[in-house]
Structure formats: C-alpha cells, structure tokens
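Methods: holo model generation. Sequences were used as deposited, without trimming of termini or removal of tags, and paired with ligand SMILES retrieved from the corresponding compound records. Each pair was processed once, and we did not select among multiple samples. The sequence and guanosine-5'-triphosphate SMILES for this entry were:
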Amino acid sequence: MGLLTIIRKNRRKEREMRVLFLGLDNAGKTTIIKRLNGDDINSISPTLGFEIKTFIHGKYTLNIWDVGGQRMLRPYWRNYFEQTDALVWVVDSSDRLRMGDCKEELHALLQEDRLAGASLLVYANKQDLEGAMSAAEIRDALDLNALTTHHWKILSCSAVLGTNLVEGLDWVVNEVAGRIYFGSTSVASSAPQGTSARDEIDLEAYLAYGRAQA
Ligand SMILES: Nc1nc2c(ncn2[C@@H]2O[C@H](COP(=O)(O)OP(=O)(O)OP(=O)(O)O)[C@@H](O)[C@H]2O)c(=O)[nH]1
Ligand SMILES: [Mg+2]
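and the model returned the structure below.
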C-alpha cells in the first residue's frame, strides 16, 4: 500500500475534509473564514501567504486553507491542490470590472487534474454593498451552467452581515460526506465549533516554498 493510500485511509477514518478557499484578492475569503470561526473581522489585511484553520462542523473536521489571491500569488495556488475535497471560490459581487478575470481564473482552476474530484461552492459575497451583482448574474458571468465536470452550487452571502455563510459550509460538508463517507447524509445546520489551528508564513517563505515545489 502506498503512502498516499495510507494517508487517505487515515483521513477518512478521522472524518477529515480539506477545503480550499480561493478567489481574486479582496473577494472576502479571510473575512468569511474569520466570521465563520467567530473571530474579529475588523482588522483583516490581505493574505500574503496562507492560513489554515481547523473547524469542527458536525461530526467532521474541516481543514480550511485560506490562500492569498493577489495576482503575483496566483501561480502558487497549485501548491495547495493536492487532496482537496472542496473548492470554495469567493467572489466580490460588487467588483464588476474584474468579473472576466474572475471567470478566467476559476475556469483555469477547474481544468486542473488534482482538483478533478473536488466539489465547488461559489460564495457571491458582499451582497450588502449597493450595486452588487446577484447570485444569478454571477452564475451567468462565470458561466457556471456550462460546468459538467464538478458538482457546484452558488450562494449569495455577506461576510460582514454573516448571512448564508453556515449554509455554504453545510452544503460543502454534506456534498463531500455524501461522496466520500457512504451513508452519511445531512449535517445539522449550526455554526461550526471553533477549535482553531493557525499557521501563517511570510511572503518570502511562501515564495521560497513555491519555488521548491515547482
Ligand atoms: N461590504 C463588505 N465588505 C466585505 C465583505 N467581505 C469582505 N469585505 C471586505 O473586503 C476586503 C477584503 O477582504 P479579505 O477577507 O481580506 O479578502 P481576501 O479574499 O482574503 O483577500 P486576499 O487575502 O488579498 O486574497 C476587506 O476590507 C473586508 O472587510 C462583505 O461581505 N461585505
Ligand atoms: Mg485573505
């Protein structure tokens, strides 16, 4: 039995899921995760490396990877694809100018072999802002209906107001559990309980890591 198989089996036994949050910079990834974890959301700065948070959600442990979305960091996203159970793509619904860019980046990701089995949740975030595009408009702008390779769902939400965030996580957990842990169906809709493991690195170390992996 290969090492990867052993690791996979252990993860399944421990009911762990690996969830990767990606999206353009300023989309609200970190704010959503902090809000879900009950952390203060008033002092968030752009993510220059990555952070991992561990949530207990129902009977599952979610390892949530929050990776910076600035253009210069995007080539390093691929370092985080391995063993991803769900991809959460966060969109700033008020950022109409970059919706084309947003679509291109998402569709490029969905071509990746290592993300082939991952479910896709799109958070249409920042719905509290005037002029924000609706979830239906974003679904069309991102051409989600053309997706045949991944199970997907789009949800409008606001990290600032806290609306629809738990619902999104519920969908992810139910979706992945239904696929991987046969017999597991619905997971109670409640806020995740926040044991939180945190890891941060600086940009230099992050880029060095990326170079080493390349
Ligand atoms: N009005 C509003 N602002 C939001 C919302 N979510 C996030 N923001 C703001 O958007 C800005 C960017 O949020 P972040 O969470 O840092 O975005 P990010 O996607 O993690 O960005 P990177 O780390 O650079 O990739 C911050 O000023 C947040 O306060 C929301 O739902 N509504
Ligand atoms: Mg961030």
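Strands lie at 16-22, 50-57, 60-67, 86-92, 119-125, 152-156.
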